[in-house]
Amino acid sequence: MVVNDTPVVTEVTETQTKEDLLSEGSTSLSSLVGDNNMQQYDIIAVVNHLKTNDRLTVTIEGCEKGVSSTETDGYIRGILMITDEDTQNQCGSDFEITIPKLAANIPTSNQNTIQTDTDLLTVARNILDTYTGRNNMADHDVLSVAQTAQITNPDLTIGVVGIEKSVATTDAQGQIIGTVIVTNTASHTNVNESFTMTIPKLQSAEDLAYIIKDNFSRTSVDNYSVSEVLLEYAESFRTNGNLILSIADDEKLDATTDADGYLRGQIVITDIANNNLQTPVFYNIPITKLPSTTPVTTQPTEQTDIQKLADYVNSSLTGKPVINDVTDSMVNDLVTRAVALKAAWYDLDENQVEVTVNGLQVNTANYAIPGNANCIVKLKDITTGQTASFTLNLSIPVIAEDLAGLAQAVHNNMVSNIVTNDDTQIPLTVDAFSFAQTICSTYGVNGQSLGVTLLNFQKNPATTSSAGSITFDLELENISTGEKVQRPIQLNILQLNSNPVPNSDLDQMATQLKTMLSNIYMNNPVNEAEVQSVVDNNVSRLFIGDCPVTASVSNIEIIAPTSTVDGKVKYHVTLRLLNSVSEIDAYSKFTSSTGTIGDGPTDGETSDELNQLASYIRTEISKGYTTNTLTPELAERYVTFLAQRAYTADVALPVNIDLYNWELVKATENTSGFASFKVDLTMKATGDKKTVDIEMIIPATRDESTGGTIGNGTVDTTDLGKAKNRLTEFLNDYNPSNTTSKELLQANLTTLASSYGVTVEVADFEKIESTSTTAGRCKFNVNLSKVNAVMTISFDKAIAKVTSPSSSSSSSSSHSSSHNSSSIKTDSNSSNNGIPKAISPTNESHKIEIVKAITSNGLVASTPKEVITSSGNRIVVSSLSKDNIFTGAVVTSDKATQATEVSVPSNAKIEGVYKYIPELSKYIKVEDGVGIAEGKVVLPTQQDSTYFVTTQVLPPAETVGTGWAQVNNNWYLIDNTGNPLKGWQNDGKGWTYLAHENSAMKTGWLKDGSAWYYLKDNGYMATGWVKDGDNWYYLKENGSMAADTTVDGYTVDSTGAWVK
């Protein structure tokens, strides 16, 4: 063994700070030589090149440019700003870049060549890509940003189209995307490029509290300081308009020559977007005692004339109402008019007063909440050079409802779409409703009171010889007031291609459909409408979600049954997918129609009951399909279940069932499979026997996933590679628990890989169960094999600690929040009458295991179906039924979305959508963003949450609302998203503490950090003297217990108790 005795030196690189980047950037810009074509984004790029910390953001404010000529130099100057995204702290400095004057011996016209459309397009697109967007930016605001690009060619114009916005939240950035277009009006040509403007994450109340506390800790005050100054200082750090700052419990003690003073209180941050929840920032800033030689008071200096004018302008304009779209120039006009009105009163010439407006911040109003705008106004007396500045606060009134404007916006959105012959009234209504909900607040409309209807709906289908159209009247209604607005709409359908395009997928689907239809049993006689309904139903079963294929039936022919041959109906089916067509000749069999099951022999024919039972079993099996994992045992169990269901529950099954001639052809990615077998039905009493031939369809997986990459970087497209990729994705999201077993994993992974013909083996399985104090561990290997190829996936993850039930206080009872993690179940001992207790989807068992039948009250849950929605969200849906009638569905969601669609039967009357709260075993009704239409429910979802779509109104005992809720002797505070809050919370009456482990309200003594607090029996934080047992304790104004000090002349020891 060779030993390398050379010491290894590890270089430690310090994280670049905002001050570091500002210094480096300023130095670089000071030495930069500019030119007349340099833009703002070029300067940002220079500084970004020096950046090594991705959490720093570079922006330029107040940028000005003066172009150079052959006579004079030009310049670019402004303020370089560096923002730390973690703390939102900023620093900045002025910069100026010199643009050298043009060489005299070169004609000026050659210095600035004619600007082309592509030159201008590049500039405009770069400006939009680097601009920092806002949630309240309208389309015209985006256009204004694009038009800041310097245009030197008068034939060129700038426009933006196709703007879409995803708003920023406190958890994620938003973005504005669209297309910028430069048009040459002389040549009538245009060029375009897409752009993406980033909207920074919204500042959370916790972020702002941290920034305020950090800056206040370095702030000094004196006897002339007031809390309002601190509030204004705190306001300077606020970037989220939903956060409102106010002062509470402020107190001041002036310093003297003998003792220090203080300025203390609370800055309360109210989040109006989150149920007006409040976050306090306690401050206690010392005022250093005065030097003995310094007078306590000073003679105030006399105000200048410009300061007096500034005071007047501020007082006269404060609170003046403006609009959401207020701009710097609008405010400048307001101030200028006020100056002109009163300047002469203060011996000033209004024409010699310069007005500057900077830092305009707008918190927009909506239909319910007023907004505000504030900015820094600077007045300068040009004659004397004296200046005066102040912060101007303006109000934005609640927006008056503009239902007509909203209707026009929805109209403009809809008419820009191209529809097809397959579009119908319901989906178009849902689309209109969803779009209206996203923008209604902009027009002062309450989304909860908004109704959308499409009246006079007519469709003129397109043909191969002409285009078509869909026309209707869009009606928006304010349900609260009864106001209605209509807009006529015509949507165009493109002319069909006269030459159908070959489509192998559609042909394969047609073949699969033909097999499915051959196993369908229809009643005799049958008409065209009934055949069409059967075909449509089976076509839709080939898809998850909306079906893009239409089918039409023709040439129906009835073949009557004989004594030896069953009757059948033959027909022609035409399938269409866009411009592709596939045609098949199909048939379905007739069922027997005499007698009823369980009536016994009639007219001496002992086989009649068996014929009816056989027909019933065939018909029921033809309604569904199976999977590659079906076994003879499961098939026989299913047939037995169907046979028993044909009789009443109190009748013993009168037949023996024997299954044989088993054959299973597994489905693959592109081809369907089947399971075929024979079943002998033998009457126990008579020995009569009926043989039934059964074929169950296994649909093709149509899995479009690819495998991982092989060593050379190419994609592994083999079945083994695809299976490995699919299982790897599953295991990446899989969180093991104490209930995880090798057998369950084996079954689940085998199901996932079965469509690829891959064998799965779970090997080397090890599990260490977790406890309430220690995490566990689960690890194993998954061996995949096909023919002679083998692949292995290794898994090793921690098992989270067990959350044990805990007491909310010394005087409150414990509350258990555990749930059955393997099924959706109904507690028959409770009063919920069959309401499913859907468990939290963070427990992987809910997403993996087959949901068991809900036995209580006759509810039955279907096998969970995984659906990937159009928004990319994965949901798992389990339908609920009673006596074969749909009663609801349990839906688990992987991601947070604004609109997730869930399919329901078209005849289902949905009464509501509820979110399940695992900690409380209760439901909260979801109102905002829910749309209910025929065959579809649209709902907003949160990450890892469970929802209950139901045809019943849940009883009050099973639900909670927002605010305080009492459950099992514990109190909880529910926010407007249905989540129980944790930690310190202020409900407007006082401070309370909700336990992190189970969200229950605490009472009694609480240790938070190094401080002790006392929470009264009603949960509110105590202040002042409190008696607990035989001892008295003093709680300070911020709630923390005093210790080792003297209060009001009384001494308290290290435990906080008064020393008597």
TrEMBL record:
EC code(s) of this entry: 3.5.1.28
Gene Ontology terms for molecular function: N-acetylmuramoyl-L-alanine amidase activity
Annotated segments matching region Disordered: 804-841
Top-rank taxon: Bacteria
Name of protein: Autolysin
Cell wall-binding repeat windows: 1002-1021, 1022-1041
Ranges of Low complexity composition bias in the record: 804-833
EC category name: hydrolase
UniProt-listed InterPro entries: Cell_wall/Cho-bd_repeat (IPR018337)
Gene field: lytA_26
Keywords assigned by UniProt, alphabetized: Hydrolase, Repeat
